[in-house]
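Predicting holo structure, 5-O-phosphono-beta-D-ribofuranose bound.
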Amino acid sequence: MTKPNPKPKARKSKDKSASSFILHPPSFPLVLILMGSKSDWEVMRNADETLSNFGIAHESRVISAHRTPELAAEIAQGAEERGVKIIIAAAGGAAHLAGVMAAHTVLPVLGVPMKSEALNGLDSLLSTVQMPAGIPVGTLAIGKAGATNAALFAIAILALARPELGEKLKSFRRDQEKKILETVLD
Ligand code: RP5
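Done. Tokens:
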């Protein structure tokens, strides 16, 4: 579940077979999943669950670029020292969380635009994706697909230095392919 501020705890996989992928103790997450509001959690739990399924030590928490600006900067600035490798940041509306995090760290930041009430997520998408040159944010799709894919993208980055993780990604793709091939329409 999301963690209350300001004392985060890392999440550890329930998948025992994947424990070799956890290169840090739980207090040292490899991936941070940040979201602007608890209202984003229903969508962002898809990123959290995907990382858990792959056995990646991670931490999910609510942090806001505008409601908790100092804490947001502090978390971004301290992430590298904690051993974090990738930050996933989700926000809706004037969705500047990912950009603000990226401004405070050189770690890769993946942005997930949340579907907003007023503009259906188009505002979130544009706010996240349109970073001026110099501070990159890798932006995924709006909503659930983006949440899941942000986690898979983070895993692909981690897999560059962890061949076992790459094998697990290949197996995940094979399973996905099998499901399509076995689809029967009524
Ligand atoms: C953003 O504003 C959050 O990321 C959320 O998507 C949106 C609405 O937040 P709430 O008003 O539901 O807390 O900061």
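The chain has a mean pLDDT of 90.
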